[in-house]
Amino acid sequence: MKITALLENTTEREDMLTEHGLSLYIETGNHKILFDMGQSDLFSRNAAMLGIDLAAVDIAVLSHGHYDHGGGLKTFLEINRTAPVYLSRHAFEPHYHGPGKYIGLDASLKGHERLVFIDDVSSIGKGLTLYPCHGEKIRQTPFLSPQEHSSTEELLRKHAAEDSGLHMMENGALLPEDFRHEQYLLVEERDHSVLFSGCSHKGILNIENRFRPDVLIGGFHFSKLPLDNTLKEYAQYLDSFTTEYYTCHCTGIRQFEFMKNHMHHLHILSCGQSIRLFH
Fold it and tell me: How many domains does the chain have?
């Protein structure tokens, strides 16, 4: 399996274009997958620079309904004429950062014939499963043993209480986001599992506790967190699993560097970088 970051906030390459956003190109033994599309057409320009043919993608996935992951949706639909795009049935609901800043998707695309709206756990190809968030309490901890339940539950409650500052519009009222439009892609190949999460708004600790994949790739949504003992606890909790983490985008560079001091399995994935797994 090969994963290439077509778009991410940072890069070590002079030929790559960056913006606040995420787009990953995933090659498995059976599929060519585009996971998210950034906020503009930069992901496609970088793909061309890297020699990646987006017209040959056979499956696209949108992790959630925010502009920095789905702003390039129109561009992808124009470049690629065949691939279905899988997204949550809640993805086009209005989303805001505070009362005045719209951060949702282009509503004019909602009726496009190639959009496939996910309503439940769904197999979308060989070894590919989508897990939507709506109707689930991701922040529950069903896998904890009685011995570890008390201290871990307290840590996850602390994580769940963080204020994202993000909102959704429901019945004309602006409400705190519940992120029901978020979904995760689980890729299983060669007896290994890789989970892709765009921003992990539902809580990366809780997501890791639920899925426990061999590899987890995506943003942790930690960029606003102070470099304190709480972040240290989060890092140590994630490091208690055997998962290898490749993070990017909304994790934050300072937060990544801080967590790296407390984790053995944490790596950065920047724009233009490729990683190979299980080869």
Answer: 1
